[in-house]
Write a structure and sequence with these properties.
Length: 173
């Protein structure tokens, strides 16, 4: 049974990430009527910023994670909100082209800036975790997986209740 545990954890984590991404896509589409093809590109910006801060900036991974999630996440959300407001009155083709343009913009930025930020060689440092910390984190893995599964489920249930019970569905249409 213990040989299956890593696969269960990986599967639950991957499925939860897909669920969060799908929820974000649906919420973006229902509120702005723009299908955001750049949804993954915006996540890529946060991940690459985290990697650059840890690997090249020599910042601790805890601070880098906080900057990437708390700093860049809301900033990108606000930026897409402004873009979405301008795209709402346009045709469907223009909306699709605009979000694909954001994907190309991010890809070009990574191609131009990424070489300097990430380099081509091995990482400058490897984040080392002490053995006790690894054991503590191993003990908390079940709670983390539970949270990873529970948060998207609660989020989806809350959106469903808001749409079905409180009449927000009428506002979204």
């Amino acid at each position: 049974m213990s040989s299956y545990l890593p696969f269960v954890v990986i599967g639950l984590t991957t499925g939860s990430v897909y669920a969060l991404a799908a929820t974000g896509l649906v919420l973006t589409y229902k509120t702005s009527r723009v299908f955001n093809f750049a949804h993954g590109s915006m996540a890529t910006v946060a991940v690459l910023l985290f990697f650059a801060l840890v690997d090249r900036g020599r910042i601790g991974w805890q601070l880098a994670a906080a900057v990437a999630v708390v700093g860049i996440g809301p900033a990108l959300g606000i930026a897409f909100e402004l873009v979405g407001r301008r795209l709402t009155p346009l045709t469907t083709e223009a909306k699709v082209l605009a979000t694909i343009g954001v994907v190309l913009f991010v890809s070009g930025g990574v191609a131009l800036w990424g070489a300097q930020a990430f380099g081509g060689g091995p990482p400058a440092s490897h984040p080392a975790l002490p053995g006790d910390l690894v054991r503590i984190l191993g003990g908390l893995a079940a709670a983390a997986v539970g949270a990873i599964v529970a948060i998207p489920a609660i989020r989806v249930a809350g959106i469903y209740l808001a749409v079905a019970t409180f009449g927000f569905g009428v506002l979204l249409e």
